[in-house]
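ugh finaly. both done.
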Amino acid sequence: MSNKTEIVIHTHNLTRTFGDFTAVDAISFDVKKGEIFGFLGANGAGKTTAMRILCGLLAPSGGEATVAGFDVYKQNEEIKKHIGYMSQKFSLYENLTVKENIHFFGGIYGIPRPILKQKTTELIERLGLESEANKLVGSLPLGWKQKISFSVAILHEPKIVFLDEPTGGVDPITRRQFWDLIYEAAAKGITVFVTTHYMDEAEYCDRVSIMVDGAIAALDTPEALRKQFGVADMNGVFLQLARNAQRGE
């Protein structure tokens, strides 16, 4: 875990309702700089809604939250400038080449042209894509699209990158390689906030928050959670929490 103590995401009783339905139910947590923070939960648990609030895309109904020091109620446009975002569907344009995609998103992020040119060359070399740089992204394997999409999401060196189910649909080897990129980003001080439904990936996180029915049911390091619930892996933790929820505990 990062030894830095700077808090880059803070929430207190953060709540979001849609009519009579409470999607996010008074959640409270802090995330530190350079931390890999796993945000887990079944479909409908509220994790995507919470992430949308933290990304400045959705206003909360109550509670408080700051992201990169900016308030989610009043400074959502500032939040967007200081974060990166990658969804499961990725954000690349399939009818543009690898190089064109990097230039396009670098332009959106406001990276000056000379710096962008240098960053593009460095990124293509780091990913080993020299021979694919002028190929259409749509022609590339899913794993490569995934790596390019993540690299583009942190091209502007944001304080935080939000990854929404980033490894869905790729093979285990490619997933492991993708996590190597996450570790590299965290080592540079970028905070990684990741949602996943792969329980083995929870083991790669510094800390894990598990949401059940809109509320945080557990939050700690993977090791501490395994010990707390007396199970061998994070899948066991998740099953225990699901059983507790069914019993109304």
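ok and the 2nd:
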Amino acid sequence: MCSLEKRGNLFFLTLTGDDQHRLGPPLISSILSTLSKISSESTPGSVLITTAHGKYFSTGFDLSYARSASSPSEAVDRLKAMVKSLRPVAAAFMSLPMPTIIAVNGHAAAGGFMFPICHDYILMRRDHGVLFMPEVDLALPLPDYFATVMRERIRSPAALRDMMLRGVKVTAEEGVKMGIVDSVYDSTERTMDAAVRLGEELSRRKWNGEVYAEIRKSLYPESCRILGLTQKPLVSKI
């Protein structure tokens, strides 16, 4: 599941419970409802900081749940349902009316990597954790919206190829070199401290959240298209 805390203008969304934070129906539903709550309570100056408890950030879809089905066809249906249900979560992050920061405390793999890649700023601990997409090793096709979001967010063709077609595990420092990760720190605590400092800095700007979200959408038009997001014709005061 996940928890939500608010300190001043900073919202803290934390994945809790299962140490691997596998993306099964309960967790996906909990995250989506929490993002809806955050969006509805946003005000100028709001900022979201996302993180997780434990050794992992998220190891992706709950494949054990899919494999526990009574038949192979039901297992496939369960996996398809999880893939479909994560799409609105990605859309919610991409359209959230505030800056978003993620403090990656450990491995973010497969579906779990969608969380960092959908945030504005990625902070990561140096001493533990990797970013990777193991679908090529698991013989699982890449969902269309995964591929589109990754392609728009990972600008280096070589980095994109290695992560998607070789399943390369990217450390925090390698992620900085690839332009995926913004900064790295020596521990979970220091990563969170840095996320809070950045959040407070961004919060002081008191940006209009609706305008902020529309600018973000304009930067990633293909991702928005495949996630079903449309831009609103906003006109600011002059």
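summary for the 2nd one i guess: The two ends are 44 Å apart (CA to CA).
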